[in-house]
Design a protein that fits this description.
42 helices; 6-stranded mixed beta sheet; alpha/beta; 982 residues; single chain
Length: 982
C-alpha cells in the first residue's frame, strides 16, 4: 500500500507474460490469418492456439454475433437456416479488427471445443442458443475449414505444400477442400464456373464447411493484372462469382469474406482492377451481409484483456476512485478544472474509472474520440502498442522504487522510453514524415530525453526536487513533464474539437492531478507558468490567450509549412463534416429554373432508410413542379450500389410493393449524384474544410504571407468543390408514362457532359423537354393543348383538368404553370377549337384570359360546335387579335396559312397520328426502302404545312461520317443531340 492507502495498479494487475518477455512490445498485435493457419516454428504466433486466442479476445457484442451466426450455419442441424445469410462480409478499413475476426472464425471451425471453454467461446455458444432456442453441439458437427488468405497468394504461383498441383484459385480451393485427395480434386477440377458442381463438391464432404477468404482485392485487384494469363484471370473471376452464389445455396455452409469497402480503401487500381472490384461488390451486396466487429463501448475492455492477465479487484478500483475524487470535488480543482472540461468522463468519473482502469478516463476519452478520428490511426492496433509499452515502462519504474501514477493520464505516457515514443510517433497520429522527425526532436529537447535526465520539462522537475521547495514533490515528482506531455499529446492530434489546436488550460492541469491534497490548484498554475515562461520555458510552446468565453490553449509547434499544416488538418475532418459540406454546397448551388420550387432533402443522421427519409421530407406538393435534390451522403446512383436509392424514389412516386401514398408524383423531379463522382467530391470537400481550418488558425492570421497563401488555397479549394459538386449531380429521375396504354415507370436522364449539371433547373427542364416530359417556353399553344387532350377530358371540370397536368404522368409539365394552361385554353376557345361550358353544357362566354377560372368545378371543357356555313359572318381581321401559332417541328411557332379570303372560317379538320418504329437496316433493302418512303411522305406533309404539331424522340445508329451532318441539322431546330460511341 502507498501512503494514500491505495494499492497501485502495477501491483494489482499482472501484465501478460508475452509483453513482459518482449519488454513492452507486442510483436503480433497486427494479426495474420495466414500465419495463424500455416505458420510453423518461429512463424507460428501464440494466437494460432484457440485457447490463447480466447484469453486475449474480449467478447464484444458484434464479434460474438458474427461468430454465433457462423456457428449456427455450421452446427445448427436442420435449423441452420435460422441464420439467413451464409455469406458474411467484413468491409471495414485498416485496423477495424477484420483479421482478428477471421482468426476467431478459423478457431471456431477448426477447434470449436477448445474455443468453447474461453470467454469468447462461451459467449458465442450462448448467443447461438438464444437464437436457436437450444444448445449447439460443442464440436459443431466437426466442420472443415477452407482458408484462402489472398494477401499471401500470388495468382498463378502456388506453394506446393499448401496447393499441390493446383494453379488457379478454384484449384487451390478444391485442393484445400479435399485436403490433398487428388482423385476427388481431379473429379471437380474442370467445373470452375459451375455453381451446382461447386455446391456438390462442398456437400460431398458430408460435414459442415466454413470458407474464409481474406483480403480479396489483394488477389483480384492489381494481383491479377500482373499474371499475364487471360485464361487464368477469366477462370478466377468466374470461380469467385460462382462461389459467392454457391455458398448461399449449400446447406451447412458458411463463408466469411474480407473486402474493404471502396470508399474506405486507399489502394490504387487499374481500370480492369476497378471493374473487378465493382463486379465483386455487386455480388457481395446481393448475396451477403456486411458486419462490423468492434464497438466503441468495448474499446477499453479490449485493451485491458490484451495487456493484462485478469481484471482488477473492485476494491482496488474503488479506493483509487475515492483518492482522486477527494481532489476533484473540492475548491478550484472542481470549479476551474474538472467542471471546465465539460466531457462526459468528468461527470461519470467513478463509472469511467471502473471501465478504463488502470488508464485515466481522460486518456481513454482522447484515444476513443480523438485518436480514432485520424485517417492513418488504426484504433485498436495502434493504441495497444502505445498502452502496452507504457504500462511496461511504468511498472518497471514502480518496481524499482520510482514514481508511477495511480491512473495513467495523457501526461503519463513516458516519452523517455524510446519504445513508447516511437509507438506514439509511428501510430498514425502524425502522418507527415517531416513532422514525425520534428516532434521526435521536440520531445527529446523540450520534454524529456531518452536517459530521463534531460529535456526542459524534466529538468524543471529535477530542480524542484533537489531543493525540496515543493511539499507535494514526492507525490507528484514529474508534474512539469506530465503537463508538457499532455500538451504534446494534444498537439500531435492537430485540429481537435471544432478544429482547435492543442490543450486547454483545464485539460493540462487535470493531467497533472494526483490524490495528494498538498498539490493544490495554485501549484498546477505555477507548473504551467514555468512551462510557458518566455525565457526559461518550453521553446516550442505557443499560448493562445482565452477571450470571449474561450479557454486559454497551449500548443507545441514544429514550425510547419502551410502544406504540412493542411495535410495534418485533412486527417481531422470527419466523414460527417465532409458530407455536410457537400450537402451545403449542393443546396446553395441548386437553381430552381422553370420549376416552381426547389427542395434539398438531407440524409438521415439517425439510421433512417432512404425510403423513410423521403416519406418524411414533405415533397408531395399540390400543383407545384418540384426540383428535389437528394443528399449524396445517402442517395447516389450507379457503381452497382444504388438499389436503396432507386427503391426509395420508386416508392416516393407511388410505385413498387412498398410505395408511399402520393397524389402529385408526376410533377416531382429528383436530382441525384453519381456514386463515383461523389467519391471525388468527398476528397475535394476534405481538402476545402482543411483549408478553412488552416486559415482560421492564429499563426496563419498573424503571418501576412501565410495568410495570403492560405486564403488563396481556400478560395481555390472552394471553387474546386463547387465544380466537383456540380459534376457529381449527373442524374435525374422522374415518373413517366408515354401514353395511356404504357405502364407507369421511373425514367432517367444522365448528363454525361462535364459542363452540364442536374443542379440547374433550366438544364433539367431542357432535358425533360427532349424526353417529352415537359413543354419548353412558349410551346404550349392551343393546338398543343388539343393534341394532349383525350376524349374523357371533355366534360371534366376545369379544376380536374388543371390538376391533371401535375398528377398525370402522360401529360408534360408546363413551363409557365397555370398561366400557360389558362392562355392555351383561352386561345383554343378564341379560335373555335373548344368551348367552355357549365354543368348543363351551356356555353359560357369568355372574353379574356382572366375569365378562365381554373379552380372552378362548375366550368367544364366542351367540344366545338359544327359551324353553320350559311349563317357564318364574313371574316374580318382584328388588328388586336393575332392568329393562332401552331408549333413547328422545332417547337417554335409558325404562322398558320392565310385564310382571310375564305368564305367561311371553318375550323381545321385534323387527326392525331402516333406510331413507333424499331427496324434493322442490315442486309434488308426492303426495310430501308419502306422507311425511306415513310420519311419522304412525312417530309412532304411538313413542307406543305399539313403538320401542325410534332413531338417525339428518334434514336438512330448511323455511319460515323454522317453524324456531323445530322447533328448540325438537329441543332438548327434548337434541339440537343446525344452522340455515343458503339
Amino acid at each position: 500500500m502507498t501512503k494514500s492507502g491505495v494499492t497501485p495498479w502495477w501491483k494489482a494487475l499482472r501484465i501478460r507474460p508475452e509483453i513482459l518477455n518482449a519488454s513492452g512490445s507486442i510483436a503480433d498485435v497486427q494479426m495474420s490469418l495466414y500465419h495463424a493457419v500455416y505458420g510453423t516454428g518461429d512463424q507460428r504466433p501464440l494466437y494460432a492456439d484457440a485457447s490463447y486466442y480466447g484469453e486475449i479476445t474480449h467478447p464484444t457484442g458484434s464479434l460474438t454475433d458474427l461468430l454465433a451466426q457462423i456457428a449456427i450455419r455450421l452446427g445448427g442441424g436442420s435449423d441452420y437456416a435460422k441464420v439467413p445469410y451464409a455469406l458474411l462480409r467484413l468491409d471495414q478499413g485498416m485496423g477495424g479488427g477484420k483479421s482478428h475476426a477471421c482468426i476467431g472464425a478459423y478457431h471456431l471451425g477448426s477447434a470449436p471445443s477448445s474455443l468453447a471453454k474461453t470467454d469468447i467461446g462461451k459467449a458465442i455458444f450462448k448467443q447461438a442458443e438464444t437464437i436457436l432456442g437450444r444448445a449447439l453441439p460443442k464440436d459443431l458437427d466437426n466442420p472443415h475449414v477452407v482458408v484462402l488468405p489472398c494477401d499471401n497468394m500470388t495468382p498463378g504461383v502456388t506453394v506446393q505444400e499448401h496447393d499441390g498441383p493446383a494453379k488457379s484459385l478454384y484449384e487451390r480451393f478444391l485442393w484445400r477442400l479435399f485436403e490433398g485427395d487428388y482423385s476427388r480434386y481431379d473429379a471437380y477440377r474442370e467445373h470452375f464456373s459451375n455453381l451446382s458442381k461447386i455446391s456438390e463438391a462442398i456437400t460431398s464432404l458430408g460435414r459442415p464447411v466454413l470458407i474464409i477468404v481474406d483480403e480479396i482485392m489483394n488477389y483480384f485487384g492489381n494481383g491479377l493484372d500482373g499474371v499475364g494469363d487471360e485464361t487464368l484471370i477469366a477462370q478466377d473471376q468466374a470461380f469467385m462469382r460462382a462461389l459467392l452464389d454457391a455458398v448461399t445455396k449449400t446447406p451447412h455452409t458458411a463463408m466469411l469474406a474480407v473486402m474493404i469497402a471502396s470508399e474506405k480503401d486507399s489502394i490504387s487500381l487499374s481500370a480492369e482492377g476497378t471493374r473487378r472490384r465493382v463486379d465483386l461488390e455487386r455480388l457481395l451486396d446481393r448475396n451477403g451481409k456486411p458486419l462490423g466487429v468492434h464497438e466503441n463501448e468495448d474499446f477499453a475492455a479490449i485493451l485491458r484483456r490484451r495487456i493484462f492477465l485478469k481484471p482488477p479487484k473492485q476494491e482496488v478500483v474503488d479506493a483509487t476512485i475515492r483518492d482522486f475524487k477527494e481532489a476533484m470535488e473540492n475548491g478550484q480543482w472542481k470549479t476551474k478544472v474538472f467542471d471546465a472540461i465539460r466531457e462526459p468522463w468528468t461527470s461519470k468519473f467513478a463509472d469511467e474509472v471502473t471501465r478504463t482502469y488502470p488508464f485515466h478516463p481522460q486518456l481513454m476519452h482522447m484515444a476513443e474520440h480523438e485518436w480514432a478520428n485520424r485517417a492513418g490511426f488504426q484504433k485498436v492496433r495502434s493504441t495497444i502498442k502505445v498502452f502496452a509499452a507504457t504500462v511496461y515502462e511504468l511498472q518497471q519504474r514502480g518496481k524499482s522504487g520510482g514514481w508511477a501514477p495511480h491512473l495513467i493520464a495523457p501526461g503519463d505516457l513516458p516519452l523517455s522510453s524510446n519504445q513508447v515514443r516511437e509507438a506514439i510517433i509511428g501510430s498514425g497520429l502524425i502522418s507527415d514524415p517531416k513532422s514525425q522527425n520534428n516532434y521526435r526532436s521536440l520531445a527529446q529537447n523540450d520534454i524529456v530525453g531518452l536517459q530521463d535526465t534531460s529535456g526542459t520539462a524534466r529538468l524543471m522537475d529535477i530542480a524542484r526536487g533537489s531543493d525540496d521547495r515543493a511539499l507535494w514533490h514526492h507525490s507528484n515528482p514529474r508534474a512539469a513533464e506530465r503537463a508538457a506531455t499532455a500538451i504534446f499529446m494534444a498537439s500531435i492530434v492537430s485540429g481537435r474539437s471544432q478544429g482547435r489546436r492543442g490543450a486547454t488550460d483545464a485539460e493540462v492541469k487535470a493531467a497533472t492531478a494526483v490524490g495528494d491534497p498538498a498539490y493544490i490548484f495554485a501549484d498546477a498554475d505555477t507548473v504551467i507558468k514555468e512551462l510557458t515562461d518566455p525565457e526559461t520555458g518550453l521553446v516550442s510552446i505557443e499560448v493562445t490567450p482565452g477571450q470571449k468565453g474561450q479557454a486559454t490553449r497551449y500548443f507545441l509547434s514544429t514550425e510547419q509549412t502551410l502544406l504540412m499544416l493542411q495535410r495534418a488538418m485533412r486527417d481531422t475532418i470527419t466523414d460527417a463534416e465532409r458530407d455536410a459540406a457537400i450537402a451545403d454546397f449542393a443546396e446553395d448551388l441548386a437553381d430552381t429554373g422553370p420549376f416552381d420550387r426547389k427542395q434539398f432533402v438531407r440524409a438521415s443522421t439517425d439510421g433512417q432508410s432512404p425510403r423513410d427519409v423521403l416519406a418524411g421530407a414533405g415533397i408531395d406538393d399540390a400543383r407545384v413542379s418540384r426540383l428535389v435534390v437528394l443528399d449524396p451522403a445517402q442517395f447516389t446512383l450507379r457503381n452497382g450500389a444504388d438499389r436503396a436509392t432507386r427503391d426509395a424514389v420508386q416508392a416516393a412516386v407511388g410505385l413498387g410493393d412498398d410505395k408511399l401514398p402520393t397524389r402529385w408524383a408526376s410533377s416531382v423531379v429528383f436530382v441525384i449524384a453519381n456514386t463515383q463522382q461523389r467519391h471525388a467530391a468527398r476528397r475535394v470537400a476534405t481538402h476545402y474544410l482543411a483549408a478553412e481550418r488552416v486559415l482560421s488558425y492564429p499563426e496563419t492570421q498573424t503571418d501576412p504571407d501565410m495568410k495570403s497563401k492560405a486564403t488563396a488555397e481556400r478560395n481555390d479549394a472552394k471553387r474546386s468543390l463547387e465544380a466537383h459538386v456540380k459534376r457529381a449531380f449527373q442524374h435525374v429521375l422522374f415518373l413517366a408514362q408515354p401514353d395511356d396504354e404504357a405502364t407507369r415507370s421511373v425514367d432517367e436522364v444522365t448528363f454525361d457532359a462535364k459542363t452540364e449539371t442536374a443542379l440547374l433547373g433550366t438544364t433539367v427542364w431542357k432535358a425533360l423537354v427532349e424526353k417529352g416530359k415537359a413543354f419548353d417556353q412558349g410551346t404550349f399553344t392551343a393546338r398543343a393543348l388539343i393534341h394532349n387532350l383525350r376524349e374523357s377530358d371533355y366534360g371534366r371540370p376545369l379544376d380536374e383538368l388543371r390538376d391533371s397536368f401535375w398528377n398525370t404522368p402522360r401529360l408534360p409539365l408546363l413551363h409557365g404553370g397555370q398561366d400557360d394552361l389558362r392562355q392555351a385554353l383561352f386561345d383554343a376557345v378564341r379560335h373555335g377549337l373548344l368551348r367552355i361550358v357549365d354543368s348543363e353544357d351551356q356555353e359560357v362566354a369568355v372574353t379574356g384570359v382572366a375569365e378562365i377560372n381554373l379552380s372552378s368545378q362548375r366550368l367544364r371543357l366542351g367540344k366545338p360546335l359544327p359551324p353553320a356555313v350559311d349563317d357564318a359572318p364574313p371574316h374580318e381581321p382584328d388588328s388586336e387579335q393575332q392568329p393562332e401559332l401552331a408549333p413547328g417541328p422545332s417547337g417554335e411557332a409558325e404562322p398558320d396559312q392565310d385564310d382571310s379570303n375564305a368564305d367561311t372560317p371553318a375550323p381545321p379538320q385534323e387527326k392525331q397520328l402516333g406510331f413507333s418504329i424499331t427496324q434493322s437496316m442490315l442486309n434488308n433493302t426492303g426495310n430501308a426502302d419502306a422507311l425511306s418512303q415513310l420519311f419522304r411522305e412525312l417530309y412532304q406533309l411538313v413542307d406543305g404545312n399539313d403538320v401542325s404539331f410534332l413531338q417525339g424522340q428518334i434514336q438512330v445508329v448511323v455511319n460515323a461520317h454522317a453524324v456531323d451532318r445530322l447533328t448540325e441539322r438537329v441543332q438548327q431546330l434548337g434541339s440537343s443531340v446525344i452522340v455515343r460511341d458503339l
